[in-house]
Amino acid sequence: MIHLENVTKVYPTQKRPALDGVSIDVDKGEFVFLVGPSGSGKSTFLRLVLKEEKPTKGRVHVAGKDLARLSNWKVPHLRRRIGCVFQDFRLLPNKNVFENVAFALEVIGKPRRFIRKVVPEVVELVGLEGKATRMPGELSGGEQQRVAIARAFVNRPQILLADEPTGNIDPATSIGIMKVLDRINRTGTTVVMATHDAAIVDSMRKRVIELEEGQVVRDQTRGVYGQAY
Amino acid sequence: MRAQFVLSEIWIGLRRNLTMTIAVITTVAISLALFGAGLLINQQVTEMRRTWDSQISLTIYLCTDNSPSAVCEENGAATEADREAIQADLDQMSEVASVEYVTAAEAYADFQQRFSNQEALVEATQEGDIPDNFRVKLATPDDYEAVQSAVEGRPGIDTISNDQGVLDRFFGLLDGLKWAALTVAMVQLVAAALLIGNTIRLSAYSRRRETGIMRLVGASNFYIQLPFLLEGAISGLIGGIFASGFIFATKYFLLDRIQSWFQFNVTLGLGSVFYVIGVSIILGVLLCTIASFLTLRRYLRV
């Protein structure tokens, strides 16, 4: 599903590569934790998958597509197959829960009937039934992140990228978020989650890829966060 | 494509930067108004030239006993022989379409009739003040100078007048007006384009959260940019509509009024006005859309 081959990424303003000869394979339906200290290359990895950045060297394949050969105008179609969740939720404060989730479908031109049918299902899947008309400001951090997850998942992407989704949330609420992500993973969606949260990684017992200074230092199925840091 | 979604985005964008939107519309309106006025004057001049050029004629005045010019003093009043020789020569010229001999009496009658509403002028003029003359209609009005120089200075000919000189000065004035309007219009159009760019940039900035999410969930570039492009286009359209009022005013209060001073009334038809308005509005919409597009390319990168 995600395939990196000897990928090096050097940002123009920096000498040290953000990723340095990284090869990673993530299969369909996997749940992968991406761990490592800040600046180890986790975010760069996610940006490469979204084709927000181009690798300096090496190849990136996502969902069977060679991103180097994907023309710019097809990038939106790639992104429709990838859902994204961030630490800061990125909800629209002037839209309610339903509208925030529906927004993702509206802007890719889905018909209204379809939106009315699908959005409530996803809102329920993330555990927000009965809160569809709440505004983001009226929700707790954990609930806001659930809205963000619903929005990322509403178009049934093949891949869900989560960049420290529990970074702004207390540990108790984080467990709920992880349950939602796990539920999504069980529908066959590949989930890649970058995180600093050792407790979560240890409790989930999923595949762990550890990056350090742009290199893969560990790739363990059913791993733990580790002592490296 | 969800029309309602796009429309609401445009409305939000226009309302959020209301002051900028007003500035844009004003600038666009002024520049298009001047541009349209320039075009209109241009059409008026072209139209007048065509009418007047086809009407251009020479009037050859013959010497009388008291003509002051040197040729007349030397040769005395035009004789019957002079008159026939001149007529024969004019008839031979290929540039000449027709020659009409007008006696002093006929010229006076014509004068009385033409200025019948200006009594003082008619009373001050006597028969004989306008000498016998030839009215020469030209087959090719451009060649009036050749005809004029061919007969000028011949015995019996006092002066030759043509209306080209007066018209050239008048057209010079209108041309000046036209270029002034077009120059100011160009400067204003550049200002309008920069203002549009700025407005769209503000608009894109204030909606960066929305556009960021749209990008993320895979909205096409077209879909992301469309509200901004339409926002520009609508500003251009509104500016153009205001400008068309000014263009109408230019026609009815400036050009038509000028025409009433002239013998041949060459007023532009409504067709020309609508043509000018159409061109102006299209220019406004295109300019605003292109300016928005160029701005977006820099500020809404994929």
TrEMBL record, chain A:
GO MF, any single term: transmembrane transporter activity
Subcellular location: Cell membrane
GO biological processes: cell division
Pfam families according to UniProt: ABC_tran (PF00005)
Location, primary (coarse class): membrane
Keywords: ATP-binding, Cell cycle, Cell division, Cell membrane, Membrane, Nucleotide-binding
GO cellular component: plasma membrane
Matching InterPro entries: AAA+_ATPase (IPR003593), ABC_transporter-like_ATP-bd (IPR003439), ABC_transporter-like_CS (IPR017871), ABC_transpr_LolD-like (IPR015854), Cell_div_FtsE (IPR005286), P-loop_NTPase (IPR027417)
Domain ABC transporter, residue spans: 2-228
Keyword Nucleotide-binding: yes
Domain of life assignment: Bacteria
Topology relative to the membrane: Peripheral membrane protein
Protein task: Part of the ABC transporter FtsEX involved in cellular division. Has ATPase activity.
Family statement: Belongs to the ABC transporter superfamily.
Assembly: Homodimer. Forms a membrane-associated complex with FtsX.
The name this protein goes by in its record: Cell division ATP-binding protein FtsE
